[in-house]
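STRUCTURE REQUEST FORM
Protein name: Flagellar hook protein FlgE
Source organism: Aeromonas simiae
Requested output: structure tokens
Priority: standard
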Amino acid sequence: MSFNIGLSGLRSVNQELGVISNNIANVNTAGFKSSRAEFAALYSGGQAGGVEMTNASQNFDRNGDVTSTGRALDLAISGSGFFVLKGADGQESYTRAGMFQRDANNYLVTPSGDRLQGYNVNDDGTLQSGVVGDLQVNSANLPAKASTELDFNANLKADAAAIDTAENPFSPSDASSFNFSQSSKVYDSLGVEHTLTQYFVKTGDNEWEVHASFDGEEMDSVMAMTFNTDGSMATPTSNPVLNLSPSGADPIELTVNVTRVTQYASDFNVSRNQSDGYTSGEMTGLSVDTDGCVYAQYTNGQTLLQGQVVMAGFTNPNGLLQTDGTTWQQSFSSGQPVIGVPGSGALGSLTAGAYESSNVDLTGELVNLMTAQRNYQANAKTISAANQMSQVLFNTL
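Status: completed
Returned output:
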């Protein structure tokens, strides 16, 4: 019996050495989770029968270090959860190794070709939440968008000198006929940039006239602007609409948001001067937010939502079936996956431009390695002692 007990110890320690060796070998494997050998005593009829290794459980409670790479599609999970993948055979799997790239068809994939899962957008750019599928990027050029709104926030100097418009009528070419001016960029349906200039003429206490020119041509419309004694705008109470006629493009109906213009004693300044139009652009790259939203970046400075990464959480991650070092599949023991976006519920957040390193504690594994070596020697010693006792018994016969 002593021989069998010692042999079971040698066999179990040898299996433990395999677990430790695998941990050490994967110390630099992204998304790898370290394992530990778990043992159980063997008994037969109440008599000790040795030991066996019952399981090698992985440590999902400890996150690996976040290693910065600067690559936009490298994603690290801070907290719990897994990325959801789908292979060519349609089988779903789960991973913590967030190193992704675009394939020839603009799908986001792992180095092995499994497609990252998430919510895609429809043709209008609206996120289709609740419908999980292969994340795909639209690499087409971003078409031009005509301006429809101009957001204009400014302060008009309250103690500016009033201008007698009867003696000095307004003229864009005469700087003495207006107090302040500001130009804004406006885009037509072809993406051509135009210049809209507003001229502010103070006509009396808290009273102003706003003239405009489009590409240097003075426009007929003149807007009256008045302010309350506390510096807030009194009129107009709604945003004016300018009708612009660019050459060779569709007419522009531009709503100018001036309701946040103020009149205080400080100098004239413009805090916001932005239209919603832009010229066409080519995609230059991708970025991912902490909530998993994937955006395409374009040469015209615009960004466009392409989809959102989803994550999966499990009641019992240790019940997952391991398919390789960094990929797992659902099992009865793990329970059904709970799908959600990063940062929701118990799911962790994402860090773009980085990946999660292995959570192996190399120092601890080396200590375990020495301990396992001593245990192996001790079990071998029990066999040697049992053998010597048997020899003594044989020599007495």
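Reviewer notes: The longest strand covers residues 47-58. The mean pLDDT is 92.
Form closed.
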